[in-house]
Design a protein that fits this description.
The protein is α/β, with parallel strands linked by helices. Helices cover 40% and strands 26% of the residues. It has helices at 15-25, 29-48, 65-74, 87-99, 140-150, 170-182, 184-187, 193-199, and strands at 2-3, 55-59, 79-84, 106-110, 123-129, 151-162, 168-169, 203-212, 215-223. The strands form 2 sheets. A 7-stranded mixed beta sheet has the order 4-3-2-5-6-9-8. The longest helix is centred in the N-terminal third of the chain and has 20 residues, at 29-48.
Length: 225
């Protein structure tokens, strides 16, 4: 029998605690989550299909793997921006980007996705992977409306996220619930992402569902009209 990842008990979280948690985890993040996140992230990037010369943003860039992939795609004529809540993650990502020789194509920011520090109609595409789970339900539409604001007309948004819509393995779901109960600032919780995107004014172009370690994951590509 399978079940959705839902959390019946209210858990108090704060952005300060999330920031501190990921600052502390930044040096070990890849070792802990690498294979789990990589395949889903790569599929999400394939769907987003960043092109040469584009200006793109990653929200929740973590240790920089997605940023590097997009920096290679945009070429010297493009630009990649990143926003993450964690200074520790930015430090790790900047070192990785420098070693890849891509610093001239990338600008990383530390900040709050609910207040994107960019002009209206600035980006061709936005990517976010396993980040929206860290938002409380009331914050999600705020962040998505910010994405709408900074995207150009016809711009794309690619989201990789734990799924509340799709059912998961009972044992793995129970373990994840336990992790969320004790480490809510790191584990996060799923949302109805496709519905939230459409309510924010996006048009769904593609929606794929898959299972990662028995947990349901959605990969959604949507477009600003």
């Amino acid at each position: 029998m399978s079940q959705n990842i839902t959390h019946k008990k209210n858990v108090v979280r704060s952005k300060e605690a999330t920031k501190a948690g990921y600052d502390g985890l930044s040096k070990w993040y890849d070792a802990i989550t690498g294979s789990y996140l990589r395949k889903s992230r790569e599929r999400g990037l394939q769907k987003l299909n960043v092109d040469e010369g584009e200006t793109v943003l990653e929200i929740g860039f973590g240790t920089g793997h997605g940023i590097i992939a997009m920096a290679n795609s945009v070429g010297n004529a493009g630009k990649v921006y990143g926003l993450d809540i964690s200074e520790g993650m930015r430090s790790v990502a900047q070192n990785r980007i420098a070693k890849a020789g891509l610093s001239h194509r990338v600008k990383l920011n530390v900040g709050d996705a609910a207040k994107l520090p960019f002009e209206d109609n600035f980006f061709d595409a936005i990517f976010t992977s396993f980040t929206l789970e860290l938002l409380e339900t009331h914050e999600l539409p705020i962040v998505l409306l910010q994405c709408q604001r900074v995207l150009k007309a016809g711009g794309r948004i690619g989201v990789v996220s734990l799924s509340k819509k799709t059912e998961g393995n009972k044992i793995m779901t129970s373990l994840y619930r336990l992790a969320y109960r004790y480490y809510p600032d790191l584990a996060g919780h799923p949302h109805l992402i496709q519905k939230a995107l459409e309510e924010a004014g996006f048009h769904t172009l593609d929606a794929t569902q898959l299972s990662v370690w028995g947990l349901p994951v959605e990969i959604i590509l949507a477009q600003k009209p």
